[in-house]
Amino acid sequence: MGKERNNFAEPLAMLLDKGERMLLQMGDKSPHVAKADGVYDDMRHDWWTSGFWPGILWILYDLTGKEQYKEAAWGWDEKFERKMMQDNNFHHDVGFQFLPTAVIKHKLTGDPDALRRGLFAANFLAGRYNLAGRFLRAWNQEKLGWSIIDSTMNLSLLFWAAETSNDPRFAHIAKAHADTVVEHFIREDGSVRHIVNFDPETGEYLGAIGGQGAGPDSAWSRGAAWALYGMANAYTYTGDEKYMRASQRVANFFIANLPSDDVPHWDFRASEDLENEPRDTSAGACAASGLLELASILPGNEGSVYLRAAERILTSLHHNYATWDLPSHDAILVQATGHKPAGENVDVSLIYGDYFFVEAIAKLNGWKSRIF
Fold first, then answer.
1. In degrees rounded to 5, what are phi and psi of residue 72?
2. Of 46, 77, 93, 262, which is the active-site residue?
C-alpha cells in the first residue's frame, strides 16, 4: 500500500491545486461547516473540529515541501495551549485537536514545544478516564457517565504519548477504553452505538442513547467510521487481535450497507425509505481512510477486500461529491451530514470530511506520516 497508485494521482493533483486556493480563502479561520454559499465558518479554538484545517496544511506541507503550508500550520498548537490556560470547553476530542497539530508538527520538525503540548493534551485526556466504568468521559457539564464512539479515534493520542514518553499509563487507559468499546459499543452485527451511558459511581452499563444517530438501535454511519478506524489503530499500537477483528466486523457491516455509489447515508437504519435520506460524505471519507489502515494490517486477499472498498468510496467522492469545478467554494466535499436528529448541518461541507479525504488520498500516493 506504500507504493504510489497511479489511479489516484489525479485526485492528488486536484487536491494540491485546491489546497493553494484554500490557503488563500481560509486565512486564520478555524472552520467547521460550509453551507450553501460554500464559505467555511470560523469557530472558537476549543471547538472540537479546530485541528482538522491545520492537519490538512501539515499533510500538504509533507507532500509538497512548500513552506507556505508549514507557516500557516505552525502556530495552531500554541493557540490551543493558550486556550487551555483560559476558560474553555476542551473535552474527549483533544486528540482531534492535538494529533493533527502538535503531534504531527513534532513528527515532521522535531519541535520540542509541540512535543510538550502533545503530552500535555494526552495528560488532559487521561484525566477524563473513569476507573469504575473503564471509559473516557464524553463532553463536560452534567454528562458524567456518558461515553461516545468518537473517542475511539482519540485513543491514538494516548498510545502516541505512551510510546513517546515511555510511560505505559497512557496505553493502559487507551486499552481499557478500547476494551469497553468492543464490549458495549460494537454490536455483534458490526453496527455501532453512538452514546453509551454508565453509572459514573459504579461503572454499571445503563444503556445506549441515539445521539447523532436515528435512535438507540440505529446505525449512525460516521460512528461506524470512527469505530472501524479507531479499532484498526488500537491493533496497530497493541498487536491485540481482538481490536483488528472488531474493526473488521464494523468494516464488513459498513461495506455491506453502502448504496450503489459507495457513499453512505447518514444512518444505515435511518428509515425504510433510505434512498431519500441524506448522505454523509464525511463518514465515507473517514471510513475510507480507516479501511486503508485495516488493509495495511491484514495479509493478502483478506486485506485487499478493504483496500478495494476504500478505493471505491474515494473514487465516488472524487467524481461525484468534490468541488473541483467550484473554485470559489472553500471546501473539498459536499453533501455531508452533521447532526440530522437535531436538524443541524444537513447537506453541507464538514472540515473533518475534507481532512480524512485528504489523508486517504495522501496514503494512496505514498504518504507515511500517520498520526491517527
1. -70, -30
2. 93
